[in-house]
Amino acid sequence: MEYYSKQINKLIEELSILPGIGAKSAQRLAFHILNMPKEQVRGLSQALLSARENVCYCDSCYTLTDSELCPICKNPSRNSHMIMVVENPRDLVAYEKTQKYEGVYHVLHGAISPMLGIGPGDIKLKELMNRLQGEVEEVIIATNSSLEGETTAMYISKLIKPTGIKVSKIASGVPVGGDLEYIDEMTLFRALEGRVEL
Ligand code: ZN
What we know:
With 198 residues, the chain is an alpha/beta fold. It has helices at residues 6-15, 23-35, 38-54, 71-74, 89-98, 125-131, 147-160, 185-193, and strands at 56-57, 64-65, 79-86, 103-107, 138-141, 166-169, 196-197. The chain has a five-stranded mixed sheet. Helix 1 (6-15) crosses helix 2 and helix 5 (89-98) crosses helix 8 (185-193). Bound molecules: zinc ion (ZN). Zinc ion binds at residues 58, 60-61, 63, 69-70, 72-73. Residues 58, 60-61, 63, 69-70, 72-73 line the site of zinc ion.
């Protein structure tokens, strides 16, 4: 038996696709939306659509942006000879918030995980290697301290070593398995300052 009308059911169904949104939360959100002023709902749906349609990968660092190059890669005062490798755009933002890093980034969009069947070809590793053809002096690996992050760090350092480019890894102090985005800025700054050469 259907408790709600078709349109309401459809809305609940679409909302429950989102991660962390179970059936109950989806219902709650649906009724909240139905009570919102129409203008606000229009704004929300337009923001969803326009973000999805216009946001793409930066041509250089592969973070999410809405132009060819992200603001960091476009900024001439950033040191493009220093590349920090992170797993996702949220980690990049965490480092940006420290306001202490002047280099550029490379976003892998994941980490190597044999358990989940994610191999080197499934993340932006080839793209990183292509960038190293330029004048890069140091690659700082800032993957998470999870098993996947460590595996990825090791893999990358093995790939880069033969090129003669300096490879370093952010220092410990970042809790094991901790998502970078939840770590405070001071801890991240210390981890960056105390990076060790591999
Ligand atoms: Zn970029």
